[in-house]
Each structure stands twice: as structure tokens, then as C-alpha cells.
Amino acid sequence: MAALGVRRAAAAGLLRPQSLGLLRGLLTPPPLQQIPQAKSEHAKAEGSFQVTMLPGDGVGPELMHAVKEVFKAASVPVVFDEHHLSEVQNMASEEKLDEVIDSMKESKVALIGKIHTPMEYKGELASYDMRLRRKLDLFANVVHVKSLPGYQTRHNNLDLVIIREQTEGEYSALEHESVRGVIECLKIITRAKSQRIAKFAFDYATKKGRSKVTAVHKANIMKLGDGLFLQCCKEVAELYPKIQFDTMIIDNCCMQLVQNPYQFDVLVMPNLYGNIVDNLAAGLVGGAGVVPGESYSAEYAVFEMGARHPFAQAVGRNIANPTAMLLSATNMLRHLNLEFHSNLISDAVKKVIKGGKVRTADMGGYATSHDFTQAVIGALDA
After folding, report:
1. Any coiled-coil ranges, and where (predicted)?
2. Segment 211-235, tens digit of pLDDT
3. Which of 147, 235, 278, 338 has its CA 20 to 30 A from that of 260?
């Protein structure tokens, strides 16, 4: 603990609130602006950051508790502004949604759990999760699928990134019954948003030193909709001659991910395909419990699990894996320029997993959520 205290004190002078923007360079199309610095008017201590927290449904609250415990042990200078938005717990309303938006306008950064969407139609097609992402214009979802050291899966040493446009496509909430027994569900693809996500993908590849971007589509069948998306990707690719560009049909992409995922680097795709591929790729490295994710707009950054599952059957059983949420939280800290604390916690998580003695059931172990969280806290001092 003494050594850790010295390191924290040494780092303290370097951790003043600075302008945000680890991914600022990725958000530079003409209509976009740089991500402003997170405000901290409501922070309890000078130099700390306010972050909006949405625990969500299922095991979300339990995972957020693990994050708060680890942050407390690591003395992370973050203050959470916690809100509850849930359609299944009758805690969803326009008023609560506006409260979350107001909080985000101040913090610019959020850590969220899965807000579960019921399948029953109750007069509103757009879920609160969808409406939140639209109001914040969280157009780019990024899931970094990377193997964890010491945890063996079918494919090891994987390192690929899935970038998904998540404000249009099949998830446009535009459905109607044209005649009795016939439902029309509209898929919206626009040039502006296709160009924006393509540019984001190529900027990301450039910023992160990656060599290839693959556009995933179904333009052989949806010739106009996916055809426009594909054309926009090709046009943007011409502006980045140093980045290799190729295309792949979505069904073949799923097969190739299972057979030979090493051929991929950065993949960019419309909404529904991204949702499916996120989950498929997460399964390659251990499942929903180990893959972090994040979503970006011109102003806001939201950090979440890469494969969004409420895992409702595990609620209250103390068996959920905190890894994905903890790694998402460390990505958030890096976004806030809190590099020391980000590395401290991510190193501790990876050290526990590599050790192999404390693993939750989804990773083949017998540890509880609490056991894993305490092991991570213990590894902070090592």
C-alpha cells in the first residue's frame, strides 16, 4: 500500500483536469466538433471529474458496484452522478430521460449498463436506450475485441475492432402495418451518416496505427441501401491511401470470423450487422463478460459493455463477471486523461485473469463477483 501511495502522490501533479480527447482526432468531419472537456462543477473535490452513471437492468447495478469499489480502492478522482432508467422496472419516463441528458450535458462522459428493451409493443417503437443514443447522437459504437493474456479460447492473440453506425439502419423504429397481416419495417441508410461512420473508421485506423479497414455489407441483395453505404466507404477510402481497404458480405464475414478472424483489423458496418458481429466476436475471446465497448458523438463519450446483455438470470446470485465493465471503466479513465489510474486498474484486472486462480463461472472458474472484485483490489497493490 505504501508503494502504491507514493506512486499515486507522484502522479497526482500530472492528473490535473485537461482537455479531453483521446479519440478527439477521430471526430473531425465538417459537421463535427471536438469533444469538450468534462465539466466538474458538482465534483466533491477539486481536480475530480463528474461522470454520468446509468446502472441499467439485469446485473448492471452489481457490476457498477464493483466499479465503484475498485475506483474507491484506487483513489480515482471521479464522482458519479447516478441515474436510473429502466423500462422493465417502471423507472423510465421522458422526465428521467431528460435528467440523464442534462447530466450528460455537464459531464460529457457516461458509464452505462444495459438498458433492457421489452419485446412487448406498448405504443412506442423506439426504446429508451435507442432514444438516449439518438438524443446524444452517439453514432459510432466501437468494440475492441482482444484476447486476454492467460485466458485460453478457441482463437488466441486476437486483436480486431468493430465499428458500428448506430443511429439509423434497421434500428430506425419505423414500422407499420400496411394492410392487415403485413408489416413493413423500414431500413434507413443516408449518405451523410454513411460517410461519417466511414471517416470515423479510417480516422480510428490512422490514429491507432492499424493497417486495414473492411466494410461489411449486403449490397448484393439490398442494392440501394447497402449499396449507398458501400459506395460511401469506397469514396472515403480513397482519401486514406495508406490504409488498405476491402469489402465483405455480412454472411461470409460471420463465417470468416469463426474460421480465420486474424485476417481482420478494423471492420465498419451498418447498425444491425454491427450488433450481430459484436456478439459473435465477443464469443471468440470469452463472451459478453470480458469485452468492453464505447460509443461516441461529436460531444459525448459513453462507455459500456461491448456485447450488451442484461444477464437477468444472474441477478442477485453474485456470479456476473465484472471484467468487461471494469475494462470499459478503464477506457473511460483513459478518455479523461487519467492514464495512471486507467493503467493501474486494467493491469490489475489482467493480472487476476492471467493468474487463473480467481475466475467467474463464465470463464470456467468458481469465483463470485465479489471474489473477483476483491482480487482486483488486491492486485492494485502488487
Report:
1. none
2. 999 999 999 999 999 999 999 999 9
3. 235
